[in-house]
UniProtKB/TrEMBL annotation:
GO terms for molecular function: hydrolase activity; metal ion binding. This is Beta-lactamase domain protein. PANTHER family: HYDROXYACYLGLUTATHIONE HYDROLASE GLOC (PTHR46233). Its cofactor is Zn(2+). The keyword Protein biosynthesis does not apply. Residues 14-174 form the Metallo-beta-lactamase domain. Keywords: Hydrolase, Metal-binding, Zinc. It comes from the Archaea. It comes from Halomicrobium mukohataei (strain ATCC 700874 / DSM 12286 / JCM 9738 / NCIMB 13541). The keyword Zinc applies. Pfam families: Lactamase_B (PF00753). Signal peptide: none annotated. SUPFAM superfamilies: Metallo-hydrolase/oxidoreductase (SSF56281).
Length: 203
């Protein structure tokens, strides 16, 4: 599975948007990088689908541009005027050449999902490897009124329950791509989230 972070060139705040090539060339999240369409075209001429982990602005600001440029189908858990396919917990969606299970993981966002294949985890913002708050296992913010640390903790636990031991790559919404013992990283993120302490001092 070839995975490219097509938002690497961004100078403004954005999530990581991942282009996954294969039988179903897929963009996981669209990001907020105005150059994302050109970045995608550096690798492929066609894009089959966009799969959203959730619809916070840093994940969808350039969604319309991507859909218009490639006439791609949109997969999302939450309602969206351009959604072609509604995702639900337990669904299977092909990302590149890999079948991924959709795991509903709210807490950071009500419409948040993660994607789990036999070898990779696309975790969105529910849990990340490093994000400036913690290294080697962190978790999504839950300080906004519509967010919940308790739900996030439940989501990370559910994710661990459905995470195959064979997963060795983690593609999170922020921070760096991680390759190695993904389960250990997610477990450390859970331990930190369970403390119920503010993620950032200003929370």
């Amino acid at each position: 599975m070839a995975v490219y972070t097509v938002t690497d060139g961004a100078e403004t705040f954005t999530c990581n948007a991942y282009l996954v090539t294969g039988e179903q060339t897929t963009l996981v999240d669209a990001g907020a990088y105005v150059g994302v369409v050109d970045a995608i075209r550096d690798h492929v001429d066609e894009l089959d689908r966009v799969v959203l982990t959730h619809q916070h602005g840093d994940h969808v600001a350039e969604l319309a541009s991507v859909l218009d440029a490639f006439d791609a189908e949109l997969y999302a858990y939450g309602d969206h005027p351009r959604r072609d396919h509604a995702l639900a917990d337990g669904d299977t969606v092909t990302v590149g050449d890999h079948d991924c299970t959709v795991v509903y993981t709210p807490g950071h966002a009500d419409d948040h999902v993660s994607l789990v294949s036999e070898t990779a985890l696309f975790s969105g913002d529910v849990v990340v490897h490093d994000d400036g708050a913690f290294d080697d296992g962190s978790f999504g913010r839950t300080d906004a009124p519509d967010q919940s640390r308790d739900r996030l903790v439940e989501s990370i636990r559910a994710l661990l329950d459905r995470l195959p031991e064979s997963v060795t790559a983690m593609y999170a919404g922020h921070g760096s791509v991680f390759e190695g013992d993904v389960r250990a990283v997610v477990e450390r993120g859970l331990e930190r989230a369970e403390r119920r302490e503010p993620k950032y001092p200003e929370e």
